[in-house]
Amino acid sequence: MELVFNNINSLLDSCKKEINAKKVKIVLSKIENFSPLDDIDIGYLLFAPDDYQEVIFEKAKEINQLLFDKVIKFYGVTYLSDFCLETCRYCGDNIYSNRKEWEKLIFEANKDGKIKSPKHFLTPQELKEDVLALLNKYPGLEQLCILSGDTPTLNVPRWIESLKEVASIYDKKIILNIPPLHINAFRKIRQAVPNNKLQFRVFQETYDETIYQREHPHYDYHDDRTFKLQRAILKEKRFNSAKANFWARVFSQERAIIAGFDEFGLGALFGLNNGLFGSFFEVIAFKRHSEFMYNKFGLVPETISFPRLLPSEGVDYVIPRRVTDFEYERIIAVTKLSVPQAELIITCRETAEFRRKIRPIINIEDFEARPGPGGNMANDAFFQMEIIDRRTGEEVKKEIENDGYKTI
């Protein structure tokens, strides 16, 4: 099976032109009969008139609770490093960031080819302490997500050392949301922590290749920042941003599964795609990517994530196409109907009100995420992006259980 995204806009265009009540009712009938939905069915649901919003949501809710009961799982978050050599235009951790902390880290880089970032790069012991601080808040945590930027010197041996420290105190699922690796690197990491279930979770950001390349450009060696970092960049044996390679990122989940990882997760950054049909494009792409992995490995994505793009200190960036709550609800509901076996994630990027509203079609939420290195053990950690819902994990957990859900 070939993985194709470049005809999604034409498919959506046809669906938008053809949509009518009869076609929507046919798709809803297929859902009632548990028949699989094809790309065109998904397109019809995305463009269904507004008065079908509640019906589509209820169908997604029924399917979700049939498969997963009324259960919400929590995952914890710990950041190993946020210093990054990538060029993501929307991220304040990028190589061109104008954050004052970043300027301090750059000064010595052009002298010896080394980037010194002690404050933003946890040692293996510090990572362990940050995880312990998180487990002190929620001792029964079943899933731990470790995140990192594309940081110089964060090589496979350093990853192995860090993960072994974590595995010494935590024997449950570890999710790596990190820059994609080669198969051999993934395999070494898998072998280093044999007793933990491992998931590789990476967000494609957008599956529209043209927009992806716009938002993740190659290095500009005429830029003063890149010039200062040139020796360090070359020492890393790179000549361009690794993330600029669209297809290398698309196939990273495949490499992780080949290397022995147990699960994979998908995601996109909603608000980035300002193409003809915006975020609807990503919903069809999720379905196609899921089907590709199922046909090749017999696996569906364990998780699908829907972060909305938020402002990030360090960059002057205008969100290309903000996603309204109404549109966002439709996107998540249709994704649940499109890839029903996947567990869907919502986080504290969203308001408390929206999290509660969308919860019937959600499966996983973050537990008091503080997205920055040392965020669980330090009150002054610098966060990658704004946090909208700053309630404690216990406050969120109590709300969920009061609404009749079981929490794990």
The CATH topology is what? Answer: TIM Barrel
Number of strands: 9
How would a textbook summarize the main sheet? 8 strands, parallel, barrel
The CATH H-level homologous superfamily: Aldolase class I
CATH architecture: Alpha-Beta Barrel
Q: Order of helices and strands, N to C?
A: HHHHEHHHEHEHEHHHHEHEHEHEHE
Structural class determined from secondary elements:
alpha/beta
Query: Helix content range of the residues, please?
Result: 40-55%
Query: Could you tell me the strand content as a percent range?
Result: 5-15%
Low-confidence stretches: 107-113, 115-119
Distance between the termini: 36 Å
> How many domains, in number, for the residues?
1
Task: Please count the helical segments.
Answer: 17
Which strands sit side by side, in order, in the main sheet?
1-2-3-4-5-6-7-8
CATH class: Alpha Beta
Gyration radius, rounded: 21 Å
Apparent shape: globular
Mean pLDDT: 91
Quick summary of this structure?
By secondary structure, the chain is α/β, with parallel strands linked by helices.
Walk me through what this model shows.
- It is globular and about 60 Å long.
- It is built from 17 helices and 9 strands.
- Residues 107-113 and 115-119 have low confidence and may be disordered.
- Helix content is 43%, strand content 11%.
- The chain is of the alpha/beta class and 408 residues long.
- An 8-stranded parallel β-barrel has the order 1-2-3-4-5-6-7-8.
- It has a single domain (65-407), classed as Alpha-Beta Barrel (TIM Barrel), CATH 3.20.20.
- Helix 1 packs across helix 3, helix 7 runs parallel beside helix 8 and helix 14 runs parallel beside helix 15.
- It has helices at residues 8-18, 21-32, 39-46, 53-68, 100-106, 109-112, 124-137, 156-167, 183-192, 209-215, 224-235, 246-250, 252-258, 280-297, 325-338, 352-358, 393-402; strands at residues 71-81, 143-148, 173-177, 198-201, 263-267, 303-305, 343-346, 364-366, 406-407.
